[in-house]
Amino acid sequence: MYEKQVVVKLKQGLHARPAAEFVKLANSFRSQITVEKGDKSVDAKSILGLMSLAVSPGLEVTIRANGSDEQEAVEALTALVSKEE
Question: Which of 2, 4, 15, 49 is catalytic?
Answer without folding.
Answer: 15
